[in-house]
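Q: Hi! Curious about what Polysaccharide deacetylase family protein looks like structurally. Here's the sequence.
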Amino acid sequence: MLFKNFKHLFASIALFIFCAVNAQQTKNWNGKKCAVVLTYDDALNIHLDKVIPMLDKYNLKGTFYLIGSSPNVVNRIDDWRKAAKKGHELGNHTFNHPCDGSMTGREWVPAEADLSKYTVSRAVNEIKATNALLYAIDGKKERTFAFPCGDMKIGDTYFYDLVKDDFAGARGVNSTYVKLQDVNLNNITAFGQSDTTAAQMIRQIEEAEKQGSFIVFLFHGVGGEHPLNVSEEEHTKLLEYLKKREKEIWVATMVDVAKYIREKQN
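A: Let's find out. The predicted structure is below.
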């Protein structure tokens, strides 16, 4: 009888340890099951006029990748400064948003913004100039970078390698789920959204959670102003879902999540 009692005791202890370890493993995103990053590209007016007020309503923070030469940056510096003071990240999306115009289907790329015609030094200088502008706006030295069009090379050169020490990480465009220890901070995965419903985006979050991963949403237009657009209604539904699940899902800026990943990988 005593032996059986010990067997039950040991079995209970083993089960407790297993559950505790498993719970810890499934809550490895700042103590939560999953991390979600909301990113918005190209410094659109609608980001300031609609998206940031929505995020503020639910006390959620987003990352806004600004193009240094955009009139929506130059003419609205005070608004971007206010956004940064509220905890939103102003990320670097280069000065001129250069994309590789030599690729198929890139006829729309203007000559002055054709990455295939850039020198590496020009790309580096424009990125650094944009960082200087962003620092003048928000006074912050830590931020992340986003590759315009997901293009990472000039010829055979990965130009970001020459500026990576200036950033906490760089967001790419590959849509895959990655474990924390396997995240490449020089090409962070992201899921682009266009005509996507809240239900579809929620399923992507649930899949990330199931895999013990995280998800970065890549938005452009929200209710208009860009061909790649998600309706304001569906975007609001997504924010409502994230707010309801705030005890289980960590919603943070790209810079904060990148810094967390780097810390855990070291």
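A: A fun detail: Helices lie at 2-25, 45-57, 71-74, 77-85, 120-138, 198-210, 232-244, 254-265.
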